Amino acid sequence: MTATTSFDFTGTRALVTGATSGIGHAVAVLLRDAGAEVVVTGTRAAATDYDTDLTGMTYRRLVLTDNASIDSLAQSISVLDILVNNAGANFPGGLDESAPDGFAASVAVNLTGPYRLTMGLRRALRASTAAGGASVVNLASMSALRAVTLVPGYGAAKSGIINVTRNLAVRWARYGIRVNAVAPGTIDTPMTAPMHAAPQIVETELAHIPAGRMGTVAELAPTIAFLCTEQSSYTSGAVFVVDGASDCV
Questions:
Q1: Is the CB of residue 195 less than 8 Å from the CB of residue 205?
Q2: pLDDT of 193
Q3: How far apart are CA 37 and CA 199, in angstroms?
Q4: Whose CA, among 124, 167, 201, 230, lies 20 to 30 Å from 116?
Q5: How large is the average pLDDT for residues 202-220?
């Protein structure tokens, strides 16, 4: 027996940031394969600078610590139905997030940059004629809901993402724009891959997960996609936790 779902995003215009690997790439591929016109971003100059298959997607460079880069991307898009704010990083530039400079750098990448991009795309989102309205999905994190002492800047930024999500959901409801967040637990991606070199860190993380394992991008992407459908048109300002029940421990 199987229990699966499928999506139809024919004619939908989507922007997925940080979509050259991991969660962002999984979401972009799902949207593309379901018929959407997908723009993806990365920090490198061109799509060919990545080994990832970006076939059928439009690539744009985006540096979230560069206001000009953010504004250029936002101004180039006139109509947008879906925005997935996925791009982000912990230990930006290899900095220690416990130190003030590392903390500030993490907040810039994971909160200030995505917020500036979202605000820059406000008119494009308002121009959407999608059934159920335009949809913004912000990637939060379980580090926003519990202490993860290795990445205090990342956790603080993701807490801010949740607050921004709720504020924009209220402010933009009258424009027919929905804003939600997804808070993943520990997902097996290139960003979490370094954990495997430190078994003690993996053990600590798994101790928070009753499911006893990391999640996969295939288990997360459909949740994000659902929040972009007309079937979720009455859902805004919500935070969907996808974490193997770690928030229950």
A1: yes
A2: 65
A3: 41
A4: 230
A5: 84
